[in-house]
Amino acid sequence: MYGLWKPRVLGAWRVPASGPVILAVNHAHNIDGPMLMGTAPRPVHFLIKKEAFVGPLGSFLTGIGQVKVDRHGTDRTAISDALAVLEHGGVLGIFPEGTRGEGDFASLRAGLAYFAVRSGAPIVPVAVLGSSERRGRLIKALPPLRGRVDVVFGEPFEAGDGSGRRTRKALDEATYRIQARLTEHLKNARRLTGR
Fold first, then answer.
1. Structure pTM?
2. How far lies 165's CA from each of 21, 92, 114, 115, 118, in Å?
3. Across 102-172, where does the E strand assignment appear?
4. What's the pLDDT band for 31 if we cut at 50, 70, 90?
5. Which residues have a Cβ under 8 Å from the Cβ of 9 and sit 6 or more positions away?
6. Where would I find the beta strands (DSSP E) of the chain?
7. End-to-end distance of the chain based on CA atoms, in angstroms?
8. Is the pLDDT of residue 18 over 80?
9. DSSP 8-state symbol, 104
10. How far apart are CA 95 and CA 27, in angstroms?
């Protein structure tokens, strides 16, 4: 990442130095995950669509501990593998919108709330800004080479309400709380970076 672009990492000290944590990342471009993996202060295990696990890339992703997920149904193996990352004190990376889009946290899926409430792990919001910049691109599918990409880590927070409930209603309420915190972080990150 540092060879192709100029990442500017802000607030990495906010990621707890040990113990389970979930990084909730906006997703506007294909390099957002690799950019975070290359700049985070701890190794990150992302939930990645199973379609990416082909050929040499599949072996590489498996080798660095990424979690394969089937997005077309409830993938119980992926859920167990992701929870195991947290149970072992690791860092789980999640794109809470489920897929690449505007990267504005506008439509969250319930997966992030489930993992946070079930594991009790804090969530650290992360904004990756500049990866979808179009001016100066030499390669259409990539941000401008040597262009600045900002990775902004926010304050950790708990998703649950303290009751320990894991009902559908509790997860829905947690999702609303999470969305508000992620949206606020993104707004602050844009103000901080001028993007």
1. 0.86
2. 20, 22, 11, 13, 9
3. 123-129, 148-153
4. confident
5. 39, 151, 153
6. 6-10, 21-25, 44-49, 67-69, 91-94, 123-129, 148-153
7. 20
8. yes
9. S
10. 6
